Amino acid sequence: QVQLVESGGGLVQAGGSLRLSCAASGSIYRLNTMGWYRQAPGKQRELVARITKGGTTGYADPVKGRFAISRDDAKATVYLDMASLQPEDTAVYYCNLEMMARAYWGQGTQVTVSS
Q1: Chain-centroid distance, C-alpha 113
Q2: Region of residue 10 (left: phi > 0; alpha: psi -120 to 50; beta: else)
Q3: pLDDT tens for residues 47-101?
Q4: What backbone phi and psi angles, to 5 degrees, belong to 88?
Q5: What is the residue-averaged pLDDT of the chain?
Q6: Are 95 and 104 in contact (CB under 8 A)?
Q7: What pLDDT sits at residue 38?
Q8: Of all helices (H) and strands (E), which one includes residue 33?
Q9: What is the pLDDT of residue 7?
Q10: pLDDT for residue 29 is more than 90
């Protein structure tokens, strides 16, 4: 019914930048909060950033000032601009979409930051 496809992950050196994109397709109605989560091996999945329908943003402390989340509802897409990447940012990043009392998840995209 609803499919989320992430893109933009990859391997970068410390200090580099990446832009992650997540495009939703299918039956899209009442698109609400969208966000990005990440999970590193051996660690729990954690919220990275979120953005409400009205454009209010929130960030986890480790990424404040470095990451920026944005959305384009016409394209049903959420973005995560990541700058000053550090090895601690290495993880699988997942996009999340809240709609019609249900949460939808992308397949995840690997971000690896080398020192």
Answers
A1: 16
A2: left
A3: 999 999 999 999 999 999 999 999 999 999 999 999 999 999 999 999 999 988 8
A4: -65, -15
A5: 96
A6: no
A7: 98
A8: none
A9: 96
A10: no
Tokens in use for 66? Answer: 């470095």
* Residue 61 φ/ψ, nearest 5 degrees: -50, -45
pLDDT at 113 over 90: yes
* 91 residue type, one letter: A
- The string of DSSP letters for the chain reads -EEEEEE--EEEETT--EEEEEEEEES--S---EEEEEE-TTS--EEEEEE-TT--EEE-GGGTTTEEEEEEGGGTEEEEEE-S--GGG-EEEEEEEEETTEEEE---EEEEEE-
Report d(CA 110, CA 97) in Å as an integer.
19
Tokens linked to 31? 């698109």
Residue type, 40: A
What pLDDT is recorded for position 100? 85
Q: What does the block give as tokens for 107?
A: 């397949």
Structure tokens at 12: 């970068």
Q: How far apart are CA 107 and CA 89, in angstroms?
A: 18
| Position 45, amino acid | R
